[in-house]
Specification:
Layout lengths: L2 H11 L4 H17 L6 H14 L5 H14 L5 H17 L3 H21 L3 H5 L2 H10 L5 H23 L2 H14 L5 H17 L3 H16 L3 H17 L5 H14 L5 H17 L1 H4 L3 H12 L41 H18 L4 H14 L6 H27 L8 H24 L4 H14 L4 H6 L1 H13 L19 H15 L4 H17 L5 H23 L9 H12 L7 H18 L5 H11 L6 H15 L7 H19 L4 H14 L5 H20 L6 H10 L5 H16 L6 H17 L4 H25 L2 H6 L6 H19 L6 H7 L6 H19 L7 H11 L4 H17 L4 H13 L7 H4 L7 H17 L4 H17 L6 H13 L1 H14 L3 H15 L6 H15 L7 H18 L7 H10 L8 E6 L2 E6 L2 H17 L6 H13 L2 H14 L4 H6 L1 H12 L9 H24 L1 H4 L4 H11 L7 H12 L1 H11 L4
Antiparallel strand pairs: 1-2
Helix pairs in contact: 1-3, 2-4, 3-4, 3-5, 4-6, 5-6, 5-8, 6-9, 8-9, 8-10, 9-11, 10-11, 10-12, 11-13, 12-13, 13-15, 14-15, 15-18, 17-18, 18-19, 18-20, 19-20, 19-21, 20-22, 21-22, 22-25, 24-26, 25-27, 26-27, 27-29, 28-29, 28-30, 29-31, 31-33, 32-33, 32-34, 33-35, 34-35, 34-36, 35-37, ...
GO biological process, one term: SCF complex assembly
Protein name: Cullin-associated NEDD8-dissociated protein 1
InterPro entries: ARM-like (IPR011989), ARM-type_fold (IPR016024), CAND1/CAND2 (IPR039852), TATA-bd_TIP120 (IPR013932)
Length: 1298
């Protein structure tokens, strides 16, 4: 954008023709939107001056475009210029309060302020808008309410984005506070409500004492208020604050609740609504502070929901027998034009607030499930006949949510543990309440037949009853049936749902009814009641399939499919005869067959799904002509990709065994299917591959001539698909090969075996389904073609060996890391499982018992060559899998072989031997003791001379592998669910050895014990804590703390395990003060792990732990030593790692549990950390970033000490002979201290600009290089942090509350 462009625009804006001005503004808007480059300040001022004048244009459309232009230009002009425009707008509004002009200006101010706040990083400039905005509102005497609301909205944006800066400007702070406190009593409702929101924002977003004082003033004025309207407004402010930041008013919540409970039932309507809203908010945001009066709060909610002084419900009929659920003209007149039947009566607002309060109690956990159903649920049922539609809808919605929550709890109890199960009393209460609830709902529908939402919510409630008590629903089916029938018979008009219930009801009432039917049908067992119900409505369901609404048709197909499954289940279990449904099934199928060509994707899928289901469930009962027509539709694969996909999916359902579709029908279409499937297998579309392969697999389970005829060509195409992606062969292709290969000759198999085995040898399969499919493939080949087993087995060994030899040669010429990336060890599981599967099929076909003799040859090969190593590894892996599968007999000779190989000089052999030996010992636990003793002997040989690391050169090389075998044996024992006595024996042997040991024990062994503890928490976690307490040497204590920490790191622990950990935590963490630095470090690591993963377990002990934790942040001089290195002495701090762990614990506490930590102690350790080593200072900066903005008072109180520490470190000089490493370390230290200063500057900008210590420190950094030490580096680092990108990132880190 050039100056010439600007001149052209200005000339057009001076034109008297409004159309020219409009075109100029429209073009400028597009130019601003497309351009991101800043324009010159001169051009920016010319543009904004002209746009500002345009806000005063005589044409409103020009005013609107000028406003849009000002908003769009924010990104291309300097922020200071934009702020000046906003100030000018404020001045103009204050001086020209005519409604038309002020309105255009206020909209521009609101939009500009919003864009500046979002797009600018300069919060200080934004804060400068506060006083002009306040002055505008203060001087306003005749401004319209919508103008005032716009200006307050602009002020709110300033507070949200520049609250910290305003907090440091006394003039702005005081003027904003004074304005807001004056305006909350404004007589205009819109203005007073917006003021309430802004005042709440002020308290929440402006840190410091002034906002606290504002809160105190608000609270005091609330307590002193005499007039109800004033008290109402002040209470709404407190509620606004509680919604955004409840911790600010926690200390007042109890007092507010007590006061409101005294007056709420007698207050006028508006105050009563505000009081109910306050209690609802406090129950939601601070349930721990409302529990002491929860019964009284409940009573208030009940009184409110029953409050209707001008209406007598007793005059209404309660009977629902022979009810008429429709109006005279059906459902054409579904919704009253006026939702409120009595516009003069506002008692409905009180009742609505009462509903929301009671609902919040149900969500808070302050009432048991039993009380929720018995007390709140019963009250809701009582009020179902509420006369105001919006209140009735809210009652029904909240009632439905009660049962949604109960259903969710029930599902969780089934998925996880019994601890979450719903009390049986609750289930009994639900069963008892369902009949009365249904009667009340139907009564409400009878009284208000035009209100469709009531009916929709009724179906939503019925749907939620079903999973909780199907028997209770059965008992009321006859009463629900007329509503279902009338709904399905109604016309296809959209429902007039209100916003109240859109979260749980559909766009059409028929869909709600069908959803209920679907849930019911899926869960019922076709009781007598269910049979009668379904038989009565089946034709209505069929008619719904002809609806003009595709969503209704889709839901109907789903319901009909569920009915078919239910009927067949009942017939197969001899519960019911289903012959009386056959005509419906035939007619329904004929209707659905007409829907398959629909353009609606969801309907097409559901209709094809129904056809597949009806053939699968009723294929032997349907008329032959219907079956033929259905199969004709399903075998027509020339309808486009998506329809063909749906067709194949339905056909797959229909023919997959155990289908009820007679084999004769399958045979009649098998040739067509196989022919088309072969064509699709050549298609490049992988979706066709998958569907066709699955269909071929299903057909291969039949003895059909068509499959035999197409078998050779089909299997060749399947091999091509497998070989197209040899490293990850498609699961359907593996399954299809296993199925089709039984329909071809051995010559065909031999013809494709070479290419197939080559491809499969390249596969690395991890997911269980694909691994199972690969095994099934080899097992089928072994069973169907025993003559090829040995050649295939030989080929598998050969392919694996070739892969391994390639790796072995690669290790000689490439770095180990690069070679390891190509390590074929990942292909080893597939090769081993494949060989075993081949033999399983072979022995199954021959009728011979299993024998492992074929693998012993591999174990006996020499490991002096890569080929021999490959064979041994494959044999060992296979033996490991045989042990896991229970196919291995105990064999002393085999055991000896495994011990021999685990002591091999080759690491790959040792690793595979560990796998085999570990699983062998797990399979035969009597061998565990010998394995453990051997492992300990190997790992501790010579260790008496010092630590394990010092003794590694004289230790048995097999030690780590034997320990791994011990762990594998433990895992096997636990996964096989062996007798707990076996596990106890393992635990006792390991724990006993550790207690007697005098050296460090492998962490792998600790992982083994951790696995035991996690699987049997009640037995072993308490024992683990006891082991920590009773350990007589440091090595044992370190080991058991490591076990405990490993348990803590598991994020998938169940409720029982967490409870046991919670009991053990205090005893284990008490060792943070142990005399041994290694034990202290491990305890701190455990503390870090539990806070990071499960901080809820530490809430009760944080206060006890903190003194010990902060003590560990101090330097322990007894751990500092000096080592002479030539002419130098090097300082070594053996406590550094422990101290770093302590600081990391402080950091994670600050981040995850800020309200539980003593911030004064945090600031103390921050100051100590600045003087400490570089590793500590890094964590210190993170602590400052996380906590300074949240707790400015604590940091402000010690700002002088922080400055002293930082200044001292920044004045540190390097020695003349410093090496490169020392120079870099020194620069990093300086950079970190500057980062801390910058973080504090953003929190305390006012102090940074003052003449205080802190101000002088900031000033010296900003001034640039001077004569002081390190000033050049410090100035450079400070400048780097002040750059826009760094400032933006820092703000995101430092100001999380904004």
């Amino acid at each position: 954008m050039s100056s010439d462009d600007c001149n052209t625009f200005l000339s057009k804006m001076d034109d008297s023709d409004k159309d020219i001005r409009i075109v100029a503004l429209t073009d400028l808007i597009e130019t601003f939107k497309e351009n991101s480059k800043k324009i010159s300040n001169d051009d920016a001022k010319r543009y904004t001056d002209t746009l500002f004048k345009a806000l005063d244009d005589s044409q409103s459309y020009v005013q609107n475009l000028a406003t849009e232009c000002l908003a769009a230009c924010i990104k291309v002009i300097d922020t200071a210029i934009a702020i000046n425009v906003a100030k000018a707008i404020c001045d103009h509004i204050a001086g020209n309060q005519s409604e038309k002009k002020a309105n255009a200006m206020s909209v521009a101010l609101r939009v500009m302020t919003s864009r500046i706040a979002e797009g600018s990083d300069n919060r200080a400039l934004l804060a400068q808008l506060a006083i002009p905005i306040v002055n505008t509102l203060t001087s306003a005497t005749a401004l319209a309410s919508d103008v005032i609301v716009d200006i307050f909205t602009a002020l709110m944006d300033v507070l949200v984005h520049a609250g910290t800066q305003i907090a440091n400007d006394d003039a702005a702070l005081n003027s904003v506070q004074r304005l807001l406190l004056n305006y909350i009593s404004n007589k205009n409702t819109a203005v007073s409500r917006r003021t309430i929101t802004v005042l709440g924002t002020f308290v929440v977003c402006v840190p410091g004492e002034q906002s606290k004082k504002a809160l105190d003033i608000i609270f005091q004025r609330y307590k002193d208020a005499i007039r109800d309207n004033e008290k109402c407004m002040l209470l709404r402010v407190l509620v606004t604050i509680a919604r955004q930041k409840p911790e600010l008013i926690r200390s007042h919540i109890g007092d507010i609740i007590n006061r409101e409970l005294e007056i709420v039932d007698e207050a006028d309507n508006e105050l009563r609504v505000a009081s109910l809203l306050a209690m609802k908010t406090f129950v939601a945001k601070a349930p721990d502070l409302t529990g002491f009066r929860i019964d009284d709060i409940y009573t208030v909610g009940v009184n409110a929901i029953r409050f209707d002084p001008d209406y007598n419900y007793d005059d209404e009929s309660d009977q629902t027998d022979d009810m008429d659920t429709t109006s005279e003209d059906g459902l054409d007149d579904e919704f009253d034009e006026d939702i409120y039947e009595d516009n003069e009566d506002i008692s409905w607002d009180i009742r609505l607030s009462g509903v929301k309060l009671l609902s919040e109690i149900t969500e808070s956990g302050l009432f048991s499930h039993e009380r929720v159903v018995q007390d709140i649920g019963a009250v809701f049922v009582e009020c179902f006949r509420e006369r105001e539609d919006v209140v009735r809808a809210e009652i029904l919605l909240k009632y439905a949510k009660i049962f949604s929550n109960l259903g969710q709890k029930q599902r969780q109890s089934q998925e996880h543990s019994a601890d979450m199960d719903i009390d049986s009393n609750v289930n009994d209460m639900v069963r008892q309440q369902i009949p009365s609830a249904v009667a009340a709902i139907l009564s409400a529908i009878k009284n208000y037949p035009k209100h469709v939402e009531t009916k929709q919510l009724a179906f939503a409630i019925f749907t939620r009853f079903v999973p909780l008590s199907i028997s209770a629903v059965d008992s009321v089916l006859s009463k629900i049936m007329p509503l279902v029938i009338s709904t399905l018979e109604s016309g296809d008009i959209a429902s007039a749902s209100q916003a109240v219930s859109t979260s749980i009801v559909k766009t059409n009432i028929k869909i709600d009814a069908l959803d209920f039917l679907l849930e019911y049908i899926k869960r019922t067992r076709l009781s007598t009641e269910a049979d009668g119900f379904l038989f009565t409505i089946k034709d209505k369901i069929k008619d719904a399939a002809s609806s003009s609404l595709t969503m209704v048709q889709t839901a109907t197909c789903e319901v009909s499919s569920a009915i078919l499954k239910l009927l067949r289940l009942a017939a197969d279990s001899a519960e019911k005869s289903i012959e009386h449904y056959l005509s419906w099934a035939n007619e329904m199928t004929e209707v659905v067959l007409t829907l398959v060509n629909t353009k609606d994707h969801a309907l097409r899928i559901s209709s094809y799904s129904f056809i597949g289901t009806v053939l699968y469930e009723f294929g032997d009962l349907l008329n032959d002509a219907v079956v033929d027509n259905a199969l004709k539709v399903l075998t027509d694969w020339n309808q486009g990709i998506e329809m063909t996909q749906s067709s194949i999916g339905a056909l797959l359902t229909a023919v997959t065994k155990p289908t009820h579709l007679p084999e004769g029908f399958v045979a009649s279409v098998a040739s067509t299917i196989m022919k088309q499937a072969n064509e699709r297998l050549q298609n490049s579309n992988t979706r066709f591959h998958t569907a066709a392969l699955e269909l071929v697999k299903s057909l291969s389970e039949y003895k059909l001539a068509a499959v035999n005829d197409f078998g050779p060509s089909t299997i060749a195409k399947i091999v091509d698909i497998i070989c197209a992606t040899p490293e990850s062969p498609p699961l359907p292709a593996l399954r299809a090969f296993a199925g089709v290969c039984t329909h071809v000759s051995v010559d065909t198999v031999n013809g494709i075996s070479s290419s197939l085995l080559t491809c499969l040898s390249m596969a690395t399969i991890y997911d269980k389904l694909s691994a199972d499919a690969l095994e099934d493939l080899y097992r089928t080949v072994g069973e169907a073609f025993p003559s090829v087993v040995k050649s295939w087995e030989k080929s598998l060994f050969g392919k694996w060996t070739a892969n391994y030899v390639q790796l072995d040669s690669m290790r000689l010429v490439k770095p180990m890391e690069t070679a390891q990336m190509h390590h074929p060890i990942n292909k080893l599981p597939n090769a081993a499982k494949s060989i075993i599967a081949l033999r399983v099929g072979y022995y199954r076909q021959s009728g011979q018992p299993w024998s492992s003799e074929f693998l012993y040859e591999a174990l006996n090969m020499s490991t002096k060559s890569a080929e021999g190593i490959a064979h041994v590894c494959l044999g060992l892996r296979a033996f490991g899998y045989l042990a896991i599968g229970g196919q291995l007999d105990e064999n002393e000779s085999l055991c000896a072989q495994l011990y021999k190989h685990i002591e091999s000089s080759n690491g790959d052999v040792r690793g595979e031997a560990a796998f085999a030996l570990g699983n062998y010992a797990g399979r035969f636990p009597d061998n565990f003791s010998n394995l453990f003793e051997s492992a300990m002997k190997a790992t501790t040989a010579g260790a008496a001379t010092g630590t394990l690391e010092e003794a590694s050169d004289i230790r048995d090389i097999s030690g780590p592998d034997k320990i791994q075998a011990v762990k594998i044996a433990i895992e096997y024992t636990l996964h096989s669910k062996s007798d707990v006595a076996v596990t106890k024996g393992m635990w006792n042997q390991i724990a006993g050895f550790v207690q007697k040991g005098n050296s460090t024990i492998s962490d792998v062994l600790a992982q083994g014990l951790a696995i035991i503890a996690v699987n049997h928490p009640r037995t072993f976690i308490s024992q683990l804590a006891s082991c920590v307490d009773n350990s007589k040497n440091k090595y044992a204590k370190q080991f058991f703390i490591t076990v405990f920490r490993t348990v803590l790191a598991d994020k998938g622990l169940d409720y029982q395990c967490n409870e046991e950990i919670k009991k053990a935590l205090p005893a284990v963490l008490a060792n943070i003060s142990d005399c041994d630095v290694g034990i202290r470090r491990l305890c701190l690591l455990a503390l870090y792990t539990v806070i990071q993963n499960k901080n809820v377990l530490t809430k009760e002990i944080v206060a006890t732990i903190q003194p010990m934790l902060f003590a560990q942040t101090m330097v322990d001089d007894s751990l500092v030593r000096f080592v002479t290195m030539g002419p130098f002495k090097k300082r070594i701090d053996d406590g550094l790692e422990t101290r770093k762990c302590a600081y990391q614990c402080v950091h994670v506490l600050v981040r995850t549990m800020p309200d539980a930590i003593d911030m004064d102690s945090v600031v103390d350790c921050v100051i100590r950390g600045i003087y400490d080593e570089q590793d500590i200072r890094t964590v210190v900066q993170q602590i400052v970033n996380e906590s300074a903005a949240r707790f400015p008072t604590a940091f402000y109180a010690r700002l002088g000490d922080l400055v002293d520490a930082i200044s001292k470190m920044q004045a540190t000089k390097l020695g003349k002979n410093s090496v490169k490493q020392e120079i870099e370390k020194h620069k990093e230290m300086l950079k970190l201290t500057v980062g801390i200063v910058y973080s504090l500057e953003r929190i305390f900008p006012k102090q940074a600009e003052s003449d205080s210590k802190f101000g002088k420190l900031v000033g010296s950094l900003a001034a640039g290089p001077g004569g002081e030490p390190n000033s050049e580096d410090l100035a450079e680092f400070y400048k780097e942090l002040k750059s826009p990108s760094s400032a933006s990132a820092a703000e995101a880190t430092i100001s999380p509350m904004i």
